[in-house]
Amino acid sequence: QVQLVESGGGLVQPGGSLRLSCAASTSIFSLYTMGWYRQAPGKQRELVASVSRLAQKNYSDSVKGRFTISRDNAKNTVYLQMNNLKPEDTAVYYCNALGPSNNYWGQGTQVTVSS
Prior knowledge:
By secondary structure, this protein is mostly beta strands. Helix content is 0%, strand content 50%. The N and C termini lie far apart (40 Å).
């Protein structure tokens, strides 16, 4: 069982920045594809960004050029740097770890973009 603990959410004004972190409790972190998803009220959970074990990155069109995903395998941690935040980025953000036969989720962290 892998535990994922997110941190870094909060309230920020439009145009501001936040950095989310997700620490994983596994020594084989480097084998997992790590992703960030988000779910806004009344909407389905959607993929924001992912980074494979080979460091290949994928972004949703809505965040390209504003968000950056990165991973530090030595710290078993994945990050999401969010710049130029918009009100429509408001959601609960979830960390995901996808392995060969397992799929794990964090508890989520709230991001609110409002003036």
